[in-house]
Amino acid sequence: MANIFRKVYSVVGALLMAEYVLQLYFIAAGIFTIANADDNQKSVYSAFKNADSFMGLHAFNGWLVGILIIAFFAISLAARLPRRTIGLNGLLLVLYIAQFVLAHTGIAALSALHGINALVLIGLTGYLTGRNWAFGRRVAPTTAYKSEPVPTPR
Fold first, then answer.
1. How far apart are CA 79 and CA 109, in angstroms?
2. How far apart, in whole angstroms, are the C-alpha atoms of residue 64 and residue 18?
3. pLDDT tens series, the chain, 154 aa
4. Is 88 within 8 Å of 124 (Cβ atoms)?
5. Domain hosting residue 9, numbered range
6. Structural domain tally of the chain?
7. Is residue 141 domain-resident?
8. Among 101, 71, 102, which Cα is nearest to 89's?
9. Do residues 20 and 73 lie in contact, with contact meaning Cβ atoms separated by under 8 Å?
10. Residue 152 domain-assigned (yes or no)
């Protein structure tokens, strides 16, 4: 049964990584919509109005990321992964809560950490997903036998 949960864990990890890509796309689309506006009042107003849809998608997708992170943590428990992995999944959940708080501080210099924390979330999720990937064969690293001659540099 734990083997099924390990596979589900891998799938949820891959979905999380795809959600992160969408997050980056939505926020970049919103920013570039504003950045490409002409330097006049009507164009800037229109750009902010158009960018609002991308920002809304970014916010909505952020909620989906949160749901997946909670599921990722629960599945790590059900899959009976090592304690260190479960602890790192707990850290991922704490980082997500910090991500939400950073997005709503109202202090620009503090909210800017939202982007840096996002990179940490992406890296940790990628590490956890790759380290615990349940599909495909795992090939043990090859080692040279002591009886084999070691080539000498010339």
1. 40
2. 11
3. 768 999 999 999 999 999 999 999 999 999 999 988 888 888 888 888 888 999 999 999 999 999 999 999 999 999 999 999 999 999 999 999 999 999 999 999 999 999 999 999 999 999 999 999 988 766 665 555 556 666 677 6
4. yes
5. 2-131
6. 1
7. no
8. 71
9. no
10. no
Q: Token pair of 79, please?
A: 């899959």
Q: Global pTM? A: 0.82
DSSP 81: -
Q: What is the DSSP string of 23-50?
A: HHHHHHHHHHHHHTS-SSHHHHHHHHHH
Task: Tell me whether residue 149 is in a domain.
Answer: no
- Is residue 145 included in any domain, yes or no? no
Query: Any idea how long the chain is?
Result: 154
**How far, CA to CA in Å, does 142 sit from each of 102, 139, 145?**
46, 9, 9
Residue 134 CB neighbours (<10 A): 17
Q: Please state, in angstroms and rounded to a whole number, the distance separating the CA atoms of residues 79 and 15.
A: 17
Q: Vertex 80, ends 61 and 9: CA angle to 5°?
A: 30
